[in-house]
Structure formats: structure tokens, C-alpha cells
Amino acid sequence: MPLTMNRNVFVTCAVTGSGNTQDRSAHVPRSPQEIASSAIDAAKAGAAIVHCHVRDPQTGVPSRLPSLYREVTDLIRDADVDVVLNLTAGMGGDITFGSPQAPLPLNAGATDMVGAAERVRHIVECLPEICTLDCGTMNFAEADYVMTNTPGMLRAMGQMMTDLGVKPEIEAFDTGHLWFAKQLVTEGILNDPALVQLCMGVPWGAPNDLNTFMAMVNAIPDNWSWSAFSLGRDQMPFAAASVLAGGNVRVGLEDNLYLSKGVLATNAQLVERAVTLVENMGAHVVGPDVVRAQLGLVKQAPRNMN
Fold this sequence. Notes:
The protein is an alpha/beta fold and 306 residues long. It has a single domain, classed as TIM Barrel (Alpha-Beta Barrel). It has ten helices and 18 strands. Strand 10 (138-139) and strand 11 (145-147) form a beta hairpin. Helix 8 runs parallel beside helix 9 (267-280). The chain is globular and about 55 Å long. The model has no long low-confidence stretch (mean pLDDT 95).
């Protein structure tokens, strides 16, 4: 892929994520109302896409309940601001082993492994314009936890997404994930051109150095759309790097809690900072209608109009 700066950039806001951040900042939304409100504020600040997980409203722990996704979806679609909805489909692939000396039986309390149909049940229910497809298995920072996405599982989930007319956003945490994504397109399971999110600096995937980043960028087919993010204090530097390399931007509390050292951020503040950064680079931030045209998305009507 030639290195050409992107002059028309879309911003994605990753609103809440599934990490254990709920007790580290009061700005991390928990309930469907809080998640939808934060997503709407991010859209008003300039995000064309909002990427949403859901959490238990009382505890803040991540959840897969379709009813919570349904509530978030309806609140966002009924709002007075337009935005492209991107729901995660990454939940349900968690394996946590026992100790290194006794890996079996699995840690049942921390393991959540379900079938492909269950993993996309809320996607069938809500029909977002985009949903994520984590295109590989990976060790995360936790000692005995593995994010598990086998080729068979990804083929099944990818085909379901394509059949539903929901655009998969390929989450690539390492180079092999892009390799397999291209295989899914070759097999006709995913449509060409595809959409990619480069996930940099997530332990223990692709490190967030520029050599690795450009290796990932150069592996993306020229006609695909892509975005990138990194974590914590590297969030904004990688927003700039992504624009310079021809991509789009993701920010949000899923990936970073701070505006500056010791200063907690809201999603809207992170989006505002990203928009300012993009515009100061001489690029233009585009809205949801431009994104729909670029990615071939069909806007869904509010539920009360169905």
C-alpha cells in the first residue's frame, strides 16, 4: 500500500470496551442509558462511528445480554444525531486456564466460550451497520487468559455477518490476523473490499512501534478501508500516524482513560481532541453519510419506525 496521507478521515469512538476499567474512571459508562448517552455525545463531537460493548449496569462487568444491546441500539437510533453503529462480536471467546502446573480444569468463573450463533445473537437482534470480527487467537496480558477465535469459528461467524448484511470490521491484533482476513475474502466469506481495524500495542499482539505498524499497513489491500488505534498515552500519536499512513482514527475510553497525566477524559473530549488533531494536519473529518457511502452500509431505521 502506498504511503499517502488520508485527507478525508472518519473517527470511531470506542465507548466502553470490556476491560476492567469500570472502577478506574467515573466516566466509563455502565448502563445502556449511560453507554448510549456517551455514544451520542461522541457523535456530536465528531465521531462518525460509535463502537459499543455493554456492561452489567450494577457491577460494570462486561456482558453479552442481547437485551442490553437492544436498549443501547434503540437509544442511539432514536437520538437526534446521526451516527454509524458498530457493535462488538468479540465476547464469548474467552478461555482462562488454571495454573501453569495444573492448567486443567479451566477456570470456570473466568471462561466464557460459546458457539458462533450465540456470539452473534445480539447482532441478529440489533442489526448494526458494522460489527467486529477478531480475526485470530491471542495471548492477552493476563497470565492464563487466551482470546480464542479458531479458523472454524471465524468462518462461521464471518458468514453469518455477511448473510445478515452487517459489515464486519476485522480486528487485527497481529500480522497473522490480516493474513487470515485476506483468506476469508478469498473464500468469499467476507466481501471485498473489507474493513480493518489495526489494534496496536495490546499485550501480546503487535507492538506499537512504527516499523510493526507500517508492516501491518502495507499488508492491507489497496482497496480496503482501515483505521488504527493504540492504548493509553499512545492513543493520539497513533491517530496522527494512521492519518499520515492513509488510514482513519479510533479513540475512546475503551483504549485510553486520560486527556493528560492524571486528568480523566470523557469520550466526547477524546473525540474533540482527535478531530482537532486531524484538522490541524490539514485533513477533513467526514460524517456518517460519507462513511456509509465509502463502506457500502445501509442506514437502519429507529425501531419505532419499523
